[in-house]
Design a protein that fits this description.
This protein has ten helices and 14 strands. With 319 residues, the protein is an alpha/beta fold.
Amino acid sequence: MITTVTLNAAIDKTYYVPSFPLGQVSRVRQMYAEPGGKGINVARVIQQLGYPVTATGIVGGHNGRFIEQTLSSQGIKHDFVRIEEESRLCLNIIDESIGSSTEVLEQGPSISTEVWQLFQARLADLAAQSRIVCFSGSLPQGVPSDAYAQLIRIAKQSGALAFLDTSGHALLQGVSAQPDFVKPNEDEVKALLGAFFGGESEAEGDGDGDGDRAHGLLRLHHQGVPRVTVSLGVKGSISAYEGALYRVHAPSIQTVNTVGCGDSFVAGMALATAQNLTFPNCLQYAAAVASANALTERAGYVQLHDVERLQKEINVKLV
């Protein structure tokens, strides 16, 4: 089983509008409301790909009940800690005239010390039943700044691999616990290492800055993170594993929606790792799952036939 952790769960509401001019009225053509937060997106994708998964985290209020009820209706097993405060609402506005995405994210509820301790105990039980625990997204108010580091240690002590996908101070603190996989983007690695990253160097790679990316990536890898993938958006990704570097080029597709692609990558990587695929094959599968998400209007949705087709088009190169 894979367990996904969403400490700051949400209702993700997506509006599709013909255009989105600032300061004017926009009419919504189509709307979707889904349980959200990055870890929930990861769980949804893993479930669609047919692997056992449990979503956990903290939810509250009417929004929390919507999250739990909708996950149940989608066949996604869940085991959340409930609070009285409302879970947050996150808006994504898709401007169809130019294909842009604008997100408006609420901060979310504040978590008490008692709830935090209860969740730690809940996680220990779930991690003991899991091959991998995926920690994703922002931290809610009230939890310690090293919350992910604490949870990663609990997961690893319970015998599970720990995957981390977050940003900012939560990423910096989380990496100190040496998770088994992290997936920062270029800006996050730049902030994490406090060094120039992703410029125009051609010292290594294919001349689009991979030399500098490789330098930053290996620094993070050598700090004790076995698997590191840096997302490069439409340009694919670059990864480190067992001292080697791998470059993945994303397939050329007609992108519909980029929200949820990073979560889909994590889902694919976790599932492939749980099935003991080689690291290059894990990268290929994860990239295919991420690309499949980009073909759908809704974040955290993939079609298995798209994954299988795209997998054949993805090139993983040893740098």
